[in-house]
Amino acid sequence: MKAKLAVSFLNLLLAAHVAADSPPSASRYISQLDREDWILQSDALHYLAENRVQAALPPIRKLAADNSRTPWLRGRALIALCKIGSQKTPPPLLLEFSSAPERIQRAAACEALELYSDAAAKNLSRRLISDTDPAVQYRALATYAKIQKAAAWADIDQPTRSPSASILPLALRSLAFTGTDAALERLATLMKDPFKNQGQAGAILRLLSDIPEPKLIPVYLGMLETINQEDPVFPAILSAIAGHQNEDIVNALQNALASNRERATYTAARVITLLLQAPELGLALRKALASAKEMETFEAGLTALGCKEMEPDKHQEFFAEFLDHTETDLRILAIRCLSHCREANLYDILSAIIDDPDKTVRYAALNALLLAPLDKAPTGKLVAYLESALASTDEPTRILGFKILAHAGNAEDFQPALTMLGDALKSTDDLRREAVAAALGSIAPDNGIAPVARSQGYITDWMVVGTFYNDKDHEAFNEELAPEKNIDFNATYPSTYVWALRGNQNKPGEKAIERDVSWEEANVDRTNGKLRMGPLLPPPGTFSLAYAVADFNCQSAQEVSLSIDGDDAFKVWFNDKKVAEQIAPYQHRQSCIASVSNIAITLKPGINRFLVKSANIGHEWWVRLRLTDADGKPIEVYR
Amino acid sequence: MTKTIQFLTVSITGLSVLCSTLHAQDQPSQTVGVARLTEPVVTAINKGLASLAKKGVQNADGSWGGNQNRVAETSLSLMAFMLPGNVPGRGVYGRHMNLAIDFLLNLGKSQRGFMGTPNNHAGMYEHGLAVLALSEAWGQSKNPRIGSALRAAVDIILRAQNREGGWRYNPEPRDADLSMTVMHLVALESASEAGISVPQTTIDKAKDYVLSCQDETSGGFKYQPGGGEPGFARTAAGVMSLIMCGQRNLKETQRGIAFLKAYPENVKFGKGFSRFHYSHYYAMQSMYQSGDADFHLWYPKISATILSTQKEDGSWNGAHGTAYGTSLSILILGVPYRYLPIYQR
Q: Are A501 and A542 in contact (CB under 8 A)?
């Protein structure tokens, strides 16, 4: 017990003096070596070995030499010791383990032996090939092959002809290290053997993944050819390929593409897409695709060439060849590939396709335009370009047309768009009217917003004043405040506000803050006609109310219909007569929209006036008034 | 003369003070001059730095703080030392700063460029802070490892930007929030200033994300675009990041500044204000960058609060540790120093 305590204390001291260049968790893992739990101990050994923590050598050496520990843990300690020690020749402890009665210790010695390549390591591994235990024997075989490479074939040949399932991974590792054509041919055969490698593919790949032999890559590619992408082994094989140098992978893929086998082309294309986008493979892939027959090969090839890292601009013409293909899926894929070409002028290339009778192709083309560089858009002519889409009877096509107009259009496109779509603003089809207004709003210059809103019958020019404090029960909303007693645009009003944003609850005792407010001019700044109070008035805009006045001129008397909506509450007077009052029930953090439609009012010749009292507890705050005639057509009014 | 009155004497040259509060619609018209520090502020900063450098305060590995936020506290402390012009490797604090830089670099090396404290769920936040600190240190330090570490760290940030343009807790492009996005936007701006290549599209997308977090009604900023309420700390962070992107005159930025100014003074300048250091770290920089009038209104009040909370040993308490409170207090007080590029107007 005392000895253990002393060791623990020593480890604690070591942990406190870990070198500055050790990883940050080194101290913790050194301390962890003292834990009684073998899982934690082996976890610590692995970490310390992988990070080559020199300060951990003394406690690990003790652990490896400690007879009271299990042979397996001692073996792990030996391997960690050899990894960290980085010596050129096997340490005495390894030699001791190689002759140990416990086969687990001998196997660990063999595993550690792989770290060395000198004559001592060679002789020791050669000796252990004759071990009585197959696990030790084949582990030694792999180590020997690693040191001797092709020269090991004479010793490797016989034992690897028909290895049992339990030692198959180690046998394959030996063959991979040997690296001769004969060895790799046998390796490929054994890996394909459905009986021997059943369920072992993962373990085999893990054992091969650290072998840098480039000749293994074609073997892996061959394996990929025989399985589909959903096979759980598929990602493991990709990982094994990924462990090699990019240059070697590229060479292997070049060879696969040159083999003139369609399955090899398909596999190479998938590997390019999923693992290594090497632009130098582009031409080889195109050449291989020239002789392809299967749809899936073309799909895989186009997908690979369309990857952004494959420099798809180099293959623009190749993609364009598929735009007229008989297969819809290939046409769509070609469009998507073209959308990755930064230098392509998609507006030119797709000008005919955006009117294609096949709507899925049309959608793909329009969606591709949403990704196209904006500098390629036909500024000022975009509306004409999109005419068929904007006027399409197919709603998704029309909506995509509006989206492109909003995305790629600018102020220069506004007037042509207004000319073409202006009638829709007066439509009684509200959904179409609102969609057109939104598209126009996104490209309108500042002075273009109000005309679009006004065309739809919205009141656009206002004077506003606020904020005034209004509690959650709308007490002030129900009172008559100074601005509504006498409208004087030159007046200044004392007001208060309470900062009660958190929880949107007006907590008792919160201190009111005073400030003066006065009338300001305001216009609606969205084509949906909403007068948004927040941006017009000082913060915070919660528990607030404000007044808005709109004066406008009429030539003659006219009976019209007034619609009002707003968030959260409004009172509206028309020519000094109250015509509406609505309060939407409060909902925390949600829109609370009140609305009244079809209020009959009569406009008089000369100046008419709307006075609006708008209140807000929290969240959004806006109000909107719209005038229409008896047929629902909008009526435009001007200040 | 009381302390408060003393701080009101912070002098500002080239000043054209606008006494009225800035209305949201007003075009910014403040002059931008050079602010100077009073003697008590300089003394407080010096005492604060000395407390960070005191034997046993900095850990043996060069970091400050406990296990939880070690990178954050180290990055902030490093910046606090650089703030008044201390240079890594030179002078009284040169060794402390070199150790701090080494700590960050070693951590980055052991984590493939990622510099968040292991197992800290807000590690990505720390990563951004480390990038900010190292970007500011690059050019001052002779350590040749900073450049490559910064490139690797910035690459992680670039790859972790999500589709909306923001960042969140993990180095992966999944979700986003305002606080984390601002941290990385500021870090990227700083790295870009230092010479690391940062695509403008990344900055633009991040700026758009910040703008999407603005509450339409109040002009304050929310944690995420979808919902929640605007808050002071979030707004300060949002405004600061927009200003760093060159959007000082944007209407949305000005609305954010109006929000900060309208926030009740007894709350925001109070000692018990929630997220005090975080909030005022961004708010003070925002007001400094906003112009002399805003700076003049703000600085005396916040510096008075901070000086009144300094402890005898020169340190300050903070929500995430003493080094956190001390370094951020120094960074807030020392905004008028112009040695850190990020603080320059």
A: yes
Q: Find tokens 């992988």 and name the residue.
A: A50
CB under 8 Å, gap of 24 or more: what pairs does A227-230 form? A229/A270
Segments in chain A below pLDDT 70: 1-24, 193-198, 501-510
- Give me the helices (H) in chain B, please: 3-7, 39-53, 70-82, 94-110, 123-137, 145-160, 178-194, 200-212, 232-244, 251-262, 265-268, 276-290, 292-308, 322-333
**Facing residue for B217 by CB, picked from A25, A502, A620:** A620
- DSSP lists the bridge partners of residue A561 as A600, A628
- Candidates B25, B110, B229; nearest CB to A501: B229
Q: Can you give the pLDDT at residue A206?
A: 85
Complete DSSP assignment for A452-491: HHHHTTB--EEEEEEEEE--TT-TTTTS--HHHHS--TT-
pLDDT number for residue B30: 61
Q: What's CA B311's distance to the chain center, in Å?
A: 22
Query: Do residue B218 and residue A541 have CB atoms under 8 angstroms apart?
Result: yes
CA distance B15 to chain A (A): 26
Reported as half-sphere exposure (CB side, CA atoms, 13 A), residue B193 has a value of 23
Query: Which sign does the torsion angle of CA B34, B40, B41, B46 carry?
Result: positive
pLDDT in tens, A168-192: 999 999 999 999 999 999 998 888 7
User: Are residues A539 and B259, on separate chains, in Cβ contact within 8 Å?
Assistant: yes
- CA distance linking residue A229 with residue A60, whole number of Å: 43
pLDDT at B42: 94
Residues of A in contact with B218 (CB under 8 A): 501, 534, 539-542
Tell me the three state secondary structure of residue A515: strand
Tell me the C-alpha distance between A61 and B116, whole Å. 33
Which residue of A52, A537, A621 to mutate against B (max B Cβ within 10 Å)?
A: A537
Q: How far is CA A636 from CA A454, A560, A626, A627, in A?
A: 6, 11, 9, 8
Question: How many helices (DSSP H) and strands (DSSP E) are in chain A?
Answer: 31, 12
Helix axis angle, A119-128 relative to A134-148, nearest 10°? Answer: 150
Sort out which chain B residues have CB atoms less than 8 A from A500's CB and list them. none
Q: Per-residue confidence at B8, pLDDT binned at 50, 70, 90?
A: very low
Tokens representing residue A414 in the block: 């506004």
CB contact under 8 A, B220 and A504: no
Residue contacts between A and B (CB atoms, under 8 Å): 80
Rounded distance between C-alpha atoms, residue B137 and residue B146, angstroms: 8
Dist CA A559 CA A604 (whole Å): 9
Task: Name chain A contacts of B221, Cβ cutoff 8 Å.
Answer: none
> Is B24 in contact with A540 (Cβ distance < 8 A)?
no
Q: Say if the Cβ atoms of A504 and B229 lie within 8 Å.
A: yes
Measured CA to CA, the distance from residue B225 to residue B215 in angstroms comes to 8
Residue among B171, B69, B180, B175 nearest B120 (CA) = B69
Q: Å from A24 to nearest chain B CA?
A: 7
If DSSP codes are grouped into helix, strand and coil, which group holds residue A198? coil
List A462's β-bridge partners, or say none. A522
Q: What is the pLDDT of residue B143?
A: 86
DSSP H helical ranges for A372-481: 382-385, 387-390, 395-408, 411-425, 430-443, 449-455
Encoded amino acid at A196, one letter: K
Number of alpha carbons in the 13 Å side-chain half-sphere of residue B205: 17
A622-628 β-sheet, strand order: A531-532, A622-628, A558-567, A593-603
Residue B263 Cα distances to A300, B212, B269, angstroms: 58, 21, 10
Residue range B39-57, pLDDT digits in tens? 999 999 999 999 999 999 9
**How far apart (Å, rounded) are the C-alpha atoms in residues A326 and A358?**
12
Angle at B105 (CA atoms; ends B76, B237), nearest 5 degrees:
30
Please check whether residue A313 is in contact with residue A304, taking contact to mean a CB–CB distance below 8 angstroms: no
